[in-house]
């Protein structure tokens, strides 16, 4: 039987609630990781136990993560992150569309693409085409007025940097936003789509190849190659179906506030905690 650790954490839970759920796993030891997080050690893992814990934890709005004992941030060399709805709270293209009065139409396509129901490249081409004629100043407004970091993002990045990991922002969104976040947050690498702008207006086209699921995966592979590391030394974080390919090659995949298809395939699902929930899992 496989021996695993279990990390339980929430935002506004109590240690009593965490310990009540922990008891279902019959751990050899329980270590407090803070006021709202515990690590249950030396658990006899089974799929049946996992299902029991996930049901109890979900009902209490607690994230439950089974992980091999001894895994730590120091095991990794790179954190690769999706941008929209992962590192930041918004979908930038939906907010740009709002400037055109087209948010409902564009958001519906975005949502279907993130669930894996539409081809990402086709969906992006359709959405960008709807933005034709929009003044490029709208991009600045979205960045200044609507873009916000996801909960725990800055704390996670600070800890990752302190542990010596490099950082990659890889997005099916746009360089207008990734370039600004790269500079603002001190990220090492960024890759995204380039919106064509002519005479200060969006043309409704993307320049060059589209950063779809396969390009995201290739980007993680390229950066790992440049750093001289294996993809197993990368943590990859995302929320949508177009993140699954790059998550599949990671040493640890993290689904953040993700679509069900992504949560089901990820090693870690952070649904109720912030991005810094990763730190308790690799403590």
Explain this structure to me?
The chain has helices spanning 15-23, 47-59, 92-98, 103-114, 120-129, 137-145, 153-162, 175-185, 213-227, 244-248, 260-265, 277-281; strands spanning 3-9, 29-34, 37-44, 63-67, 78-81, 166-174, 189-198, 201-207, 234-238, 252-256, 268-270. With 283 residues, it is α/β, with parallel strands linked by helices. It has a domain at 1-70: 2-Layer Sandwich (Alpha-Beta Plaits). The strands form two sheets. Strands 8-7-6-5-9-10-11 form a seven-stranded mixed sheet, sandwiched between helices.
Provide key terms for this protein.
283 residues, alpha/beta, Alpha-Beta Plaits, seven-stranded mixed beta sheet, four-stranded antiparallel beta sheet, 12 helices, elongated
Alpha-beta classification: alpha/beta
The description of the largest β-sheet is:
7 strands, mixed
Round the mean pLDDT to the nearest integer and report it: 96
Can you tell me the overall shape? Answer: elongated
What name is given to the CATH topology of the domain at 1-70?
A: Alpha-Beta Plaits
Give a summary of the structure in a few sentences.
The protein has 283 residues and is α/β, with parallel strands linked by helices. It contains 12 helices and 11 strands.
List the SSEs and their pairings.
Elements: E1 3-9, H1 15-23, E2 29-34, E3 37-44, H2 47-59, E4 63-67, E5 78-81, H3 92-98, H4 103-114, H5 120-129, H6 137-145, H7 153-162, E6 166-174, H8 175-185, E7 189-198, E8 201-207, H9 213-227, E9 234-238, H10 244-248, E10 252-256, H11 260-265, E11 268-270, H12 277-281
Helix pairs in contact: 3-4, 4-5
